[in-house]
Amino acid sequence: MEKLLENIIESNRRYTVQGELASYIPELTKANKDALGIFITTLNGEEFYAGDNEIKFTIQSISKIISLIIAIMDNGKDYVFSKVGMEPTKDSFNSIIDLELNDLNKPLNPMINAGAIATVSMIRGKDKDEVFSRILEFTKKLCGNEDLKVNESVYISEKKTGSRNRALAYFMKSTSIIEKDVEEVLDVYFKQCSIEVTSKDLSKIALVFANEGVSPWSEERIMPKEVTRIIKTIMTTCGMYDASGEFAVNIGLPSKSGVGGGILAVAPGKMGIGIVGPALDEKGNSIAGVEVLKDLSHELELSIF
Ligand code: DON
């Protein structure tokens, strides 16, 4: 297995030069564009890794699945999906046009920025600090890693330059999708996107989904099985944004990407996969990371379809 992973990483490194770092968050341009790594944890506790698997990066949009879990556990699925849709979109993750011109009168799904910001607004807590602390603690539990922290420079960079997210959020306030104070909701959203992880952390989160919500190491049920089913479905249809269809055909694993270069992929009943590769394609997915997953899914026959 280790040999296989090394071969897959080395043969796909060439794709990193074709991608770009996310420059709309200035701090993300400090990442190493050539990096590429993978970490796999299997349900029977084995760990396999290759490449630059140890580098740290910010979780970015992968955090959207974590806030969705908490929002559903706090409010129930019917309430959450009364404010956010469950339909994929052909538009980009930060699309503004999508928000007003769809028939649902709500963001299309919880994986695009508008839907994720609305989801964060539904998480319970007496103030923004308590809401964020619940997200961070839940993420630590999912990873089995007590040391997770916010990358302060990325958080500040996002907060300073997040005009587009602000536009989405204020629009949603005007239509009562968001009921709380907009700046407080955005602050939590920027912070959750700036939690720093490794490919190992992502593989551990994915493993909890692969195990239908029970932590394989503590054997604690972290979320109801029904919640894992919803999240895996949304990841499959919307997790890779407007590339989700092609990704489902070529790879066939519930997955979520982030502009920090991470991809989390779930092989149900088998393994959790974490990828890092900060060079992105034009849709905001790790360009080489997608190729790595393509080879891995093919070699190990992982597609769920
Ligand atoms: O809101 C943003 O734009 C970022 N914090 C997260 C976007 C993201 O990761 C999109 N993923 N590919």
UniProtKB/TrEMBL annotation:
EC numbers for this chain: 3.5.1.2
Pfam families in the record: Glutaminase (PF04960)
InterPro entries on file: Glutaminase
This protein's encoding gene: glsA
NCBIfam families linked: Gln_ase
Keyword Acetylation part of the UniProt annotation: yes
Domain of life (superkingdom): Bacteria
UniProt-recorded name of the protein: Glutaminase
Catalytic activity as recorded in UniProt: L-glutamine + H2O = L-glutamate + NH4(+)
Single GO molecular function: glutaminase activity
Quaternary structure, from the entry: Homotetramer.
HAMAP family listed in its UniProt record: Glutaminase (MF_00313)
Binding site for substrate: S61, N113, E158, N165, Y189, Y241, V259
Presence of the UniProt keyword Metal-binding in the record: no
This protein's UniProt keywords: Acetylation, Hydrolase
Family stated for the protein in its record: Belongs to the glutaminase family.
PANTHER family registered for this protein in UniProt: GLUTAMINASE
